[in-house]
Amino acid sequence: xxxxxxxxxxxxxxxxxxxxxxxxxxxxxxxxxxxxxxxxxxxxxxxxxxxxxxxxxxxxxxxxxxxxxxxxxxxxxxxxxxxxxxxxxxxxxxxxxxxxxxxxxxxxxxxxxxxxxxxxxxx
Amino acid sequence: xxxxxxxxxxxxxxxxxxxxxxxxxxxxxxxxxxxxxxxxxxxxxxxxxxxxxxxxxxxxxxxxxxxxxxxxxxxxxxxxxxxxxxxxxxxxxxxxxxxxxxxxxxxxxxxxxxxxxxxxxxxxxxxxxxxxxxxxxxxxxxxxxxxxxxxxxxxxxxxxxxxxxxxxxxxxxxxxxxxxxxxxxxxxxxxxxxxxxxxxxxxxxxxxxxxxxxxxxxxxxxxxxxxxxxxxxxxxxxxxxxxxxxxxxxxxxxxxxxxxxxxxxxxxxxxxxxxxxxxxxxxxxxxxxxxxxxxxxxxxxxxxxxxxxxxxxxxxxxxxxxxxxxxxxxxxxxxxxxxxxxxxxxxxxxxxxxxxxxxxxxxxxxxxxxxxxxxxxxxxxxxxxxxxxxxxxxxxxxxxxxxxxxxxxxxxxxxxxxxxxxxxxxxxxxxxxxxxxxxxxxxxxxxxxxxxxxxxxxxxxxxxxxxxxxxxxxxxxxxxxxxxxxxxxxxxxxxxxxxxxxxxxxxxx
Lengths: 123, 509
Prior knowledge:
Chain A is α/β, with parallel strands linked by helices. Helix content of chain A is about 45%, strand content about 20%.
């Protein structure tokens, strides 16, 4: 796909982070990972990823706050964000979109579906 | 005053006025007829007096003539002529007697005088006739004087009778005028009183009814606190107003009760929804790992080339770990649900709490080591034997100690137990740590299901957020309590107070 710019995976749960990183890599994507919202913002600014997969329940700075801050930062507000969360209610989807996410995927992740979403946003 | 009293009073007043009118009428009639009889008597007596006067005058003239005739001639009178004359005198006597029966108190004196003089006169006349033919008989020379006296007395009596008749006539006139006046006054008073009483009765009733109507309307339109105030009436309408207020109180309480029940039900419903959303969230996290790793392993097997067996095994063990985590989560949820629907029961047996605590601490040694914590056990020698559910006792301390290990790094965790100072038969168990601690707000919610002191905490420290909820419910079920004392940044102390026998808690309740 992009080849040059990596995908940023923000996930605090070690197992899930390990699993998704490896699967994305197997799908041919370059992946960098962050463990909390602040780290995510820092990496967005320094590495300019092509798309961000963001868990919402994060330590230090949660996903919603990180999204809002990213949208206010001119340097990184163009980077698409896909919310990735175990909150599966309609209200949770709306909260994520309202925080500034471009798309939304629930856990357990439908991996082929996630790849399609990534593909759409990376164009 | 009550409505009934008012009505009764009005009725009585009108009846009394009516009675006064009727009484006046009868009294008037009686007085009139009485005076009329007296008047008629007086008039008749007057007439009779005149008749008697006439008769006396005639007789006197006859006697004068006869006397002159007797003196001048020797003519004798025939016996029948004399008898005729005597009977005439007797007639006069009886007439005068009859007049006496018609005279009354006021004329009695006059009549008696008349009766005396006339008696003398008539006796003299009778003597005159009886002895007329007796040449020796000398006529009484006083007779003329006596006749004059009698005439005068008769005159006086007649005048008296006239006067009385006049008086009676006056009384009749006065009585008629008085009864007329009383009747008119009574009639006018009746009309006035009826109108006034009617007016006040209607006005008073209207006012009371209006207040009742206002109350009903206000209450009906939702003003549940509206009450009819200043009820100074002790009658039926006052009773009605008080009954209305009473009903309003009861209705308002009932409505509040229903509202409260509804709020409670709504809260419970909302709590259930939140619980369900939380359950869904908590189940998805381990499932994500299970499905993700499984799909990845599946894909790797499809790939050509060597499968990295060591890597695959590590991945499989992660699947197993997540699966177990999922299972323990489901068990916790089921336990909690059982407790909250009242289906969890106690299986009591006798056990030594110090042995169980030591056992629990030993089993958690690996967890202690993870965060480089040191465990301190206090001296348990003095502890009594408990008769309670040992499995739940164990679970409480596994949960408390796991939490302590999870939220403490490079610190101390201590477990202590002692008999309660003030309540004999009760034991206090404490788990103290030097971990991250909680502020007051966090402490107030820490025993609720799926609450971890900070939402981000769960991400940092893992766990389901059900451990303390289970501790709380188990402690309660076992007849005891659980409390927390904590300060943000300097650790927490959880204290479980349990009875040596659950019966103790029932006695205390």
